[in-house]
Each structure stands twice: as C-alpha cells, then as structure tokens.
Amino acid sequence: MGQAGSKAGYRAIDYGYNYDLSKIAKAQNVAMMSLLSSDMANKDSWFFATQVKGQLEHDIGELGFPHYSIFRAGLLGRGSDARFVEKFFGIFIKRLEVTELATAMFSDVVRKLNLPADATLDKDIYWNANIRKMSEEYRDKISKEEQK
Fold it and tell me: Cys bridge to 100: 51, 72, 126, 135, which one at CB 3.0-4.6 A?
C-alpha cells in the first residue's frame, strides 16, 4: 500500500478520490471520462490493489459517461521519480513512458470530443501496445501539421 499507509488509505485515494471526481463530472454533464488503471485490474481479483482498480473501472462505467476510456497501463517509466519496484521490474519488462501515456490519453480525448453529439455510447480499453501506437500516431500527425 506504499505511500497510502494502509488498505483503507489506499482505497480512499485510489478509489474514493477518483470515483468522487467522476460523480462530480457526470453531474456536470461531462461527456468524456478517461481513467488510468492497471493492466491487471479485476474487480474479482484476490489481490487488493487490482481488485480496487477493477471495482473503480466498473463503478465509473456504471455512471454512464457517453465516452469512457480506460488506459490499462503496465509498468510505467517515471524517470527519476520511479518507485523501487518499477526500477526493479524495469530490468525485465519494457516500461510505458508517462509521456507516451499522456499523449495517448490526450489524443483519445481530442478524437472523441470531435465526434458528432449524437454518437453512441462507447467504452474503450487500451493496453500498452495500443497506448504506444496512439501516442506515435498522434506525434506523427502533429509533426506533419507543423511541417506544412
């Protein structure tokens, strides 16, 4: 539970703040919700952290945002802010750089907010490979526009 200090603290931060913010956004008729989750999120998991993330994904989905995107990132590359476990597993697993994640999340919002107002409800789940591809495609698009 690391920085949260306890299971209750972790749940309050990882679930509570995110869900409360989502309810406020929904009440204000926000059309798009993006959630950074975990590649192992599962509300039925026996592991507390992945169960909390899975429950959050589910409960936000129940709020009924017209556009809901879940980014199930794996190991994040945080540079000098990396946690011990991220540094250790980074030896064995390719990290997803936070800049790639942010670019993909931004490009997803831009794309979805440009859809027609009567577009059907959608829920997309993106994994590391999708996130990297979205980020690369968006950077390429911006680069081409800058060259014009």
Answer: 135
Lookup result for tokens 């945002």 = 65
Give the span between the Cα atoms of 27 and 17, in whole angstroms: 15
Residue 9, classified by CB atoms within 10 Å of its CB into exposed (0-12), middle (13-18) or buried (19+), is: middle
Specify the higher pLDDT residue, 62 or 120. 62
Whether the CB-CB separation of 76 and 112 falls below 8 Å is answered with no
pLDDT at 1 over 70: no
> Which is more confident, 102 or 79?
102
The phi and psi torsions of 123 (rounded to 5 degrees) equal -135, 120
Tell me whether residue 68 is exposed, middle or buried, using C-beta atoms within 10 angstroms of its C-beta: 0 to 12, 13 to 18, 19 or more. buried
Q: List, in order of start, the domains of the chain with CATH numbers.
A: 2-147 (3.40.50.720)
The pTM assigned to this predicted structure is 0.89
